[in-house]
Amino acid sequence: MPTLRQLEYFLAVAELRHFGRAAQLCNISQPTLSHQLRTLEERLGAILIDRGSSLPELTPVGREIAERAKRVMLEIRDIRALATRSRNQLAGIVRFGVTPTLGPYLMPAIIGALHAEQPDLRLYIRDGIPAEQARDLVAGRLDMLVGPQPIAGEDLEILPLFNEPLSVVAPDHHPLAAKPRLECADLAGTRFLTLDHRHHFHQIVQSACALFGAEILHDYEGTSLDSIHQMVGSGVGLAILPELYLRSEVGGDAMVVRLPVSDWSSSRQIAAAWRARSANAEEYRALAMRIRDQARELLK
Questions:
Q1: Domain encompassing residue 135
Q2: Over the chain, what HEC string results?
Q3: Number of domains forming the structure of the chain
Q4: Do 170 and 33 sit in the same domain of this protein?
């Protein structure tokens, strides 16, 4: 029978399509990795990896076994998590994914509260593109994520947490900033900054610009809300920024003003997600509700 370690090595090669990087990920030498994979194939009586091309490719039976091995490894992780549960609270490290348009402005207050309540809990926080993090969650590379809806993935439990209002902002010296009341038509022909298209935030700005008759500045896509904020302040264009960012100490509304667009309002729905069959599903749900309560306090 194959060992769990051999399945781990096999899955690393299946994911990375590279023996050297797979060995590095597994913290072993490449000869050891190759030997273990040969032993795995001998035990199963099947060739799993086609080594004839420049990059290792899975054979048809290798692809089928890889899918089943992923499920096995997820079940093993859940068994280990189940065995270490204590006092109906999470303990140890939770691999936590969050979008960079939310995490820096929400998580500091939550981490402080959680540490006081559950001192044995550690959040290993990874910023990332929401769609990519959903795939990491399904694959078991993350335990839980918090990000904007929609969150798509097989066998996930998704809990809506809160709606975060969004505001149109301009530099304080912009002509529109002096008007006490605006309508969508007043924004026609203006130029908006946004993040690159992989971010859910890009779609929000794109939809708003279609309504306003405005233009997205594709040549000046920001890498963070801070970069967008700074470009707005310097007069490059307008932007849409989320409420938690505008209220935060690390973000804030310096250099910009909110534009009072009377016939437009928008928000994004933030949700938490985890694998529905995880051994810690109940604890993740409780953690999500704790995040929900803290976020609603921040948005009062």
A1: 89-162+269-298
A2: CCCHHHHHHHHHHHHHCCHHHHHHHCCCCHHHHHHHHHHHHHHHCCCCEECCCCCCEECHHHHHHHHHHHHHHHHHHHHHHHHHCECCECCEEEEEEECCCCHHHHHHHHHHHHHHHCCCEEEEEEECCHHHHHHHHHHCCCCEEEEECCCCCCCEEEEEEEEEEEEEEEECCCHHHHCCCECHHHHCCCEECCECCCCHHHHHHHHHHHHHCCEECHHHCECCHHHHHHHHHCCCCEEEEEHHHHHCCCCCCCCEEECCECCCCEEEEEEEEEECCCCCHHHHHHHHHHHHHHHHHHCC
A3: 3
A4: no
Q: For position 84, what pLDDT does the model report?
A: 61
Stretches where the chain sits below pLDDT 70 are 81-91
Q: What is the pLDDT of residues 237-249, one digit of tens each?
A: 999 999 999 999 8
pLDDT tens per residue, range 108-163? 888 887 777 777 778 899 999 989 999 999 988 999 999 999 999 889 999 999 99
d(CA 93, CA 118): 12
- 205 Cβ neighbours under 8 A, 6+ residues apart: 192, 194, 216, 239, 240
Q: Which two tokens stand for residue 49?
A: 């990896």
| Domain final position from 52, 83, 114 | 83
Residue 274, amino acid: W
Q: Kindly report the length of the chain.
A: 300
| Residue 41 and residue 108 in one domain | no
Question: Tokens 């969004």 appear where?
Answer: 166
End residue of a domain, out of 83, 117, 139:
83
